[in-house]
Design brief:
Elements (H helix, E strand, L loop, with lengths): L2 H14 L2 E5 L7 H10 L4 E5 L5 H11 L4 E5 L4 H9 L5 E2 L5 H8 L5 E2 L1 E2 L2 H8 L5 E4 L7 H9 L6 E4 L5 H8 L7 E3 L5 H6 L2 H12 L3
Parallel strand pairs: 1-2, 1-9, 2-3, 4-5, 6-7, 7-8
Helix pairs in contact: 2-10
Bound molecules: 3-phosphoglyceric acid.
């Protein structure tokens, strides 16, 4: 797949769902009730991170059991993890940063890569290869809305998915920017509510968040 096709697929995914819950699974029993609660609240796209050993099996489970949802893999750090999430049928791949290794893997991958950046130089490293869609991470800590406004001038054809430190209260400010395609974070599925199995509470958070766009 070319990067132009990859950009088009990412645009399709995030046009359908402008919110991206970033989920780290601690217990496989949580996977289906958790995504079902968010889906009932109106959120149909998810990033499952590899921060826990359950990340990969959770992606496989969701691809098998919930084919109507869109499941991406997050916190992909190296080539081995990249290959593992491609094999698990992840529908997109998110990385916190952009090493040469990861950017090269994304060039002819059958799964679109959303590389993480925090600076103009990192955007340029991806831009020269053809990347036009990036994750901004950690969004709030590295400049947030002001940084994205500043990036809009030199990078007119680039769009971002900011994540990191974003809350339900601050998400709308990001979503209002023309160069933001979606906003991600853990606030839609907080660890405490997952541990308590409070699926009704998570559904409510999903509904409140989905009402933002
Ligand atoms: C990410 O990987 O995008 C962040 O860890 C999101 O987490 P936060 O919303 O809790 O900052």
């Amino acid at each position: 797949m070319t990067l132009t096709e990859s950009t088009r697929i990412l645009d399709d995914i995030f046009a359908r769902s402008r919110l991206l819950p970033v989920i780290s699974i601690e217990d496989m029993q949580d996977v289906l009730p958790l995504v079902d609660a968010l889906a009932a609240g109106g959120i149909k796209t998810f990033e499952i991170t590899l921060r826990t050993p359950m990340g990969l099996p959770a992606i496989e489970l969701l691809r098998r059991e919930r084919p109507g949802l869109c499941v991406g893999a997050g916190t992909v750090l190296d080539a081995a993890q990249f290959q593992a999430v491609v094999d698990a049928e992840a529908q997109f791949i998110v990385t916190p940063g952009c090493t040469d290794e990861l950017l090269e893997l994304g060039l002819d991958s059958r799964v679109p890569l959303l590389p993480g950046i925090a600076t103009a130089s990192e955007i340029l490293a991806g831009y020269r290869l053809g990347y036009r869609r990036f994750k901004l991470f950690p969004a709030q800590a590295c400049g947030g809305v002001q940084l994205l406004e500043a990036f809009a001038a030199p990078f007119g054809d680039v769009r971002f998915c900011p994540t990191g430190g974003i809350t339900q209260a601050s998400a709308a400010g990001y979503l209002a920017l023309n160069n933001v395609m979606s906003v991600g974070g853990t606030w839609m599925a907080p660890r405490e509510l997952i541990r308590q199995g409070d699926w009704a509470g998570i559904r409510r958070l999903g509904e409140e968040s989905a009402a933002l766009f």
